[in-house]
Amino acid sequence: MSTSDGSVVSVTKVGDNGPPDQRWNLVLMGDGYQSGQLDQFHTDASTFCTAFFATKPFDALRTAINVFRVDVSSTDSGADDPTSCGGQNVGSGDVKATYFDSTFCYDGKIRRLLSCKTDTARAVADDKTPHYDQILVIVNSATYGGSGGPVGTTSTGDSNWPTIAIHEMGHSAFGLADEYEYYSGCDSGETNRNTHDSTEPTQPNVTVNKDAATLKWKDLTTTAQIPTSTNGDCSKCDPRSTSPVAAGTVGAFEGAHYFHCGAYRPEWDCIMRTRTPPFCAVCRDVISRKLTPYSPSSIGDAGASDYPSSDSSSSDDSSSSSDSSSSDDSSSSDSSSSDDSSSSSSDSSSSDDSSSSDDSSSSDDSSSSDDSSSSDDSSSSDDSSTRKRR
Ligand SMILES: [Zn+2]
After folding, report:
1. Ligand 1 centroid vs 152 CA: distance in angstroms?
2. What is the pLDDT of residues 345-381, one digit of tens each?
3. How many A from CA of 243 to the centre of ligand 1?
4. What is the whole-number distance in angstroms between the Cα of residue 168 and the centre of ligand 1?
5. pLDDT tens digits along 58-103
6. Between vectors from CA 26 to CA 23 and to CA 28, what angle results, nearest 5°?
7. Rounded to the nearest whole angstrom, what is the distance from the C-alpha of residue 163 to the centroid of ligand 1?
8. Which of 5, 84, 184, 358 lies deepest, with the highest CB count within 10 Å?
């Protein structure tokens, strides 16, 4: 229910690529891990890092990024899962006492919308990792869920959870939009997703503009054919399962930002469309522009790069060994400092996961909250980079 339901145990810099005030700092926190389950959290954090650093462009930008793992123990294992959600009795009814009070059905509508007390997460990060740029809370639950608000949240309940979490970070850390062309699902029967309105989305990876000369990503296009594909029946998703042009072609593909028609995405596929890597070229460019200033070569120093070599499996070893030996590096063991800001600042996290399973009905307002969370987020991260780089 609150910070009285657990404690902050330690902080470990599991990916050390230089001084925190000069790098982009990702903080991984666990919720719903009992003290005897922190080894599992270490494994889960390592699994995420392996997937994250195998995904372009993070692989090439590794030296710009530090990763901190904050071990937080909770009284109970798991997360709240209200029985009734969106008018349906779909949850298990679990009520769990966890430090960040993670819950499914965070918005009262969609079970898989998993979030937590983000103010508490930020308070812990402020205290333990003051130069943090992005927080991802990993929730120890076998139920599928996540969200991409200012604080990313993911459960470990899906075999692809690390890549889903990377998709969420596309929203949280880089202000990217969902590129898929439905809200509840292509087969959901939804009738309000036919044609996007004429308002240009603020995000860099979706557009309603099909003019090649002024396209947002015109410098990256690899085809003169704009739009590159169109959807012949706007009452439903484009039925083609494979790209009509060569993979990797950057153009303008119709069907994006929750609509079958009238909005365009840069490539046929992208992790922001399918939750399967890679990011498309436009999304990679957005991420690279943001992270490159933090890389040692940009800064001109000789930052360390002792994040686990090339072998992903070693990340686990290195993190656990640093644990056992040097938990003093993790300086902190008090949980007191994270004030019980159980206040409700809900980050109205993006409901994009909502669309990942096609069963639930969802409402339009959550799509707008997605937008707002992405923009919140980019502004907040901008703040942090401003703070650092001045
Ligand atoms: Zn993309």
Report:
1. 18
2. 333 333 343 333 333 333 333 333 333 333 333 333 3
3. 15
4. 12
5. 999 999 999 999 999 999 999 999 999 988 888 999 999 999 999 9
6. 155
7. 14
8. 184
